[in-house]
């Protein structure tokens, strides 16, 4: 299952469109689901995302011109995925504050935005993802923003993350793997007798 994680486009107020290099990559028929962590701003661009994939899950950003839920919890493969724009979490982008939100939502993966800077943080058996700004829109605390988004390939309890960045007009890709830890199995109760010997069959 291929999932596009995208956010903080700020179209048309801080950017006019996605970079053409990204548009060439995001073609209809390849992506199964889109998760947008807010601040698309224009509903017109929401329709563009739906032209790539009809299954678009979006949360409310602080500059969006249409209403969406503040938070969402989704099931992707064996993962519980929480989505929140992130302007509600102070300090903005702080891993400890985001970990608190992640525990409150009880999710394996937390997707947030707002800082316009892509970041992936592994915290034990949990993962935090910020896909950054897909248009490179400026932020009040960061004006030199590198356009980025994330593709997440989910297969059961495994997620392969591909971070796409636009650097000097060229697309660079970084891969990060994440595996959901399986719950430990309880040890069998002692019966007082030694177990019978078994033979492995190969």
What does this protein look like?
It is a single chain. 13% of the residues lie in helices and 32% in strands. It is built from three helices and eleven strands. It has helices spanning 20-25, 43-52, 95-105; strands at 2-6, 33-36, 56-58, 71-76, 79-84, 109-111, 119-123, 126-130, 148-155, 158-167, 170-179. The strands form two sheets. A six-stranded mixed beta sheet has the order 3-2-1-9-10-11, covered by helices on one side. It has a five-stranded mixed beta sheet with strand order 4-5-6-8-7, covered by helices on one side.
Write the layout of secondary structure elements.
Layout: E1 2-6, H1 20-25, E2 33-36, H2 43-52, E3 56-58, E4 71-76, E5 79-84, H3 95-105, E6 109-111, E7 119-123, E8 126-130, E9 148-155, E10 158-167, E11 170-179
Parallel strand pairs: 1-2, 2-3, 5-6, 6-8
Antiparallel strand pairs: 1-9, 4-5, 7-8, 9-10, 10-11
Give the helix level as a range of percent: 10-25%
Outline: globular
- Runs in which pLDDT lies below 50 for 5 or more consecutive residues are 189-202
User: Span from first to last CA?
Assistant: 33 Å
Number of helices: 3
What is the total tally of β strands? Answer: 11
Q: From the alpha-carbon coordinates, what is the Rg to the nearest angstrom?
A: 20 Å
Average residue pLDDT: 89
Which strands sit side by side, in order, in the main sheet? 3-2-1-9-10-11
SSE order, one letter for each helix or strand: EHEHEEEHEEEEEE
How much β-strand is present in the residues? 25-35%
Q: Structural class from helices and strands?
A: alpha/beta
- Report the biggest beta sheet as strand number plus sense, adding barrel if it closes: 6 strands, mixed
